[in-house]
Amino acid sequence: MSQLPFDPLLVAIATPLALALAIALGLPKRWSVRLSYVAFAVPLLLALHTWWHFSSVPHESGYAFLTQYSTGLDAFGISLKLGLNGISLPLFVMAGIVGFAAGLYAIQSQAERLKIYLMLLLIMQGGLMGVFASVDVLYFYFFHELALIPTFIMVGIWGGKDRSYAAMKMTIYLTLGAMISLVGLIALYVKSGSSTFDLIELKRYLASKPLSDITQQNVFALLAVGFGVLVSLWPLHTWAPLGYAAAPSSNAMLHAGVLKKFGLYGLIQIGLPLLPAGASHWAQPLAWVAVIGNVLVVGFVTMAQRDLKQMLGYSSVMHMGYAFLGIAAGTTVGVGGVVIMMVAHGLSVALLFLLATSVHHRTHTLAMDEMGGLARQTPVLAAFFVAATFASIGLPGFANFWGELSIFVALWKFSPVVTACAVAGVVISAIYGLRAAARIFFGPATEAMAVVAAKHPPADLGWAERIPALVLLTALLFIGLWPKSISTPINGALTPPARAVAAK
Amino acid sequence: MTLEAVKLAAESNTWTAIFPELMLGCLALLLLVCEILLPKRLHALIPDVAAAGILGTLVGLGLSWNNPAAVGETTFNGLLQHTSGGQFMRAFFLLAALLVCLLGRVALAKQLMPRVEFFHVVLVVTAAMMLLAQSNHFVMLFVALETLTIGLYILVSYYRTRTASLEAGLKYLVMGALSSGLLLFGIVLLYGVAGNKALAASTEQAMNYTDLARFLAANPGNYVASLGIVLVLAGVAFKVGAFPFQIWVPDVYQGAPTPVTAFLAVASKAAGFAVLLSLCGPGGAFASYGALTEPILLLMAAATILFGNIAALTQHNVKRLIGLSGVSHAGFLLLGVVAARHVPSAVGAVYFYLFAYLLASFAVFGVMTHLAGAEDSDQDLDHYAGLAKERPFLAAVLAVGLGSLAGIPPLAGFMGKFLVFVAVFKSGHGSSLIIAAAGVVLSIYYYFGWIKAAFFESWAPADDAAPLAPARTPVGPLAGVALCVLALGSVVLGFWQGPVGQWLGMK
Lengths: 504, 507
Known about the structure:
A: 3-stranded antiparallel β-sheet, 21 helices, B: mainly alpha, 20 helices, 2 strands
């Protein structure tokens, strides 16, 4: 067992942020780009390091790598406390992988004002690592917002169609969600009477003195609505497709892939263990909203999309519905399934957004009706895209399969009707996913496509694009073929709270 | 009064306790002397003398921070009370004055105006604010408040050849006189009723907060006293620009020279809150009438947050915009004052909020000063187009400042809002956070709109009829350092509250 001479979590958070600060203070462009490779690789390597050593390092209340730094607000029970438990570990690793892929893709993207672009992406990356490494509830929120801000700016400056409108809409929706969840977190802090934001302390305190049922219900409602907006729970989801369609690819990868999981992660780490009565009170309404709104309604809307990125945006909203279903089911299998699905979805949606941009560079359009027959010129791109689509549908062999399967198994006990509707959703996602792949890559080329192809003959995926795609696909297959690698820690972390739910 | 009595009174005059204020007064006079004595070519140095003097006073204050002769004492026969909160406010006003002097140098360079008087008045006003924050007596309060307000009348209409500035000055004068009248009437009512020998605990020293507090505690629900309290609060609400006494804010903020707008928005508002805390805070003069003051302040806070944010939504002139956004900040601070009666940590939260607000506001005002043309009141959002490309430094400072004002993590403004929200929730007014949260979401719209104007390229074709943006002033080394420190300060204080947080936690 190798121990690093420094705190891997803090360094994983601080490295990207430090480089971002250096760029802001005027680091020259050449060095900014070179050091960016390092700053995106360090979190990934440290995340893999923590994964490798997770079971062998000492644990304290389920958390490994615990460290605490004072920021001067100790009197309020706030300090920067970092650590990983079985739930945050897979997501921390996923954030490292997706961040690395998004960073590589950004460096090769030749974006205008690349330095600033990388700076914002680095801030996002630092924030994302912080979200999943924070044990302090306030810092968990704080890092989320830190990662969120660059999104608004990146959509507004480097975005595509309707960027200004999309940036504004995203900002207002997401601030609304963040404010509601902040009020919920403050309510939890004050009502618990424990005067600490430390999640471990809160858990211990509330285990001996649980909140009254009414308080739990109210606070859980605040958290569910606030986090729900951030995770695009229907009908508060409209910012997502619009924003993702407009966002530049690396930003969309990080936001749709990683940052959006914040709300689900918050519900799993804070909502379920601390407010079990609130969770079981709202389980039925949450499940129905998720299955009818997110899975079925948004599923049909996704089928009607003609724009590739809009379709991906809607499909990611739809998949979030499954996650809410797993949380509503509330058992170890269900919630564990959600965590696996969060990791799998993060990887697959990032891969799809990456490939969609690569497709766009070759077809010069995002309208799927104007594409066709691209597989002949770009077989590698087609292969990646089809694999990513299979993963997204949830075919066995990919990580998504295990997530969805566990959710459905847990859901069956919760409500067979909801399960039936949810399984119908899989058919819907197969329809739009396969149809999109077929339209873009197979069949005869459309006239519009033929004109574009004659002007700019499409080249296949170069190595600069292949490596980030390969990183993501490898991770998807690895977890798909060896799910135990992440399900063991998740299981370990979830077993106690599940027992508490069962006792209720 | 016999000579003996005068001697006795004079013994409690600990002059060293108000050394910083005396320094500022002497410095103000020194500036005038400098103007007479120094040859004309050296006149450009006078603003530097002012800034250096303030900096020196600030350093001196820092060195004698825990001076046992000052903190925790009442001096001048109960006129002043020196507390650690008062020390904080002193440093706050000195810092604000220093920044106003820096902005004043930049702004006045664009005008054909006498320079020295501006700095002279700023120094006097600062000294008045520092005394105001420590006053423990209604006479002290009123005299300091009037010194402050009269100084600001001059500063607001300082660009005397500009109609906008003169109009603003007149409006501020009329409104300020009205508010002083209300305040004075309230004081008189309180003095009268507290001096009524027929009532319990009546006192001859009814202007003194300590005696007044004793009287009010012994006579709960007295009608005249209640009216007096309401009128005093109304007078102070004018100063902080709280609803429904905020009508003067947009016009005066627009017309006043930009550095003065900054002074009004930050220092003058903070002075009002220092007074409110000493009146309605824990152990304040009105503490026993909490059942009366609390609903009034709470209602005022909610209305102020909503009004400020909604009115700011449609503004295109940035000075009006920041004025109205400042109104909403007054609302958040009022919430903190309400909470302070029950939750001791709320006082610290209000101070932290004010400090974060100072850093962010001066960053934004600094950028505004550099972007303003000769016609100071005409600063439009459209003038910010392309700022990010042409002046990345100013654009970055602007983004940090606005982000902090909007309360976005990881900036200091977020921590300020967060601490106030926690205090409000603890004090049992959790439902008012709904309005506060709605206010934050509304505010995002216009703050973000401002950032959008500076950063995002607009697709609108260049219109010949569109007003041309005035030439942007190059950033001097001193102003550059100041802006950089302000922006970094907002970032650092957001991540690491350090000694400030420790100090606030102690309270």
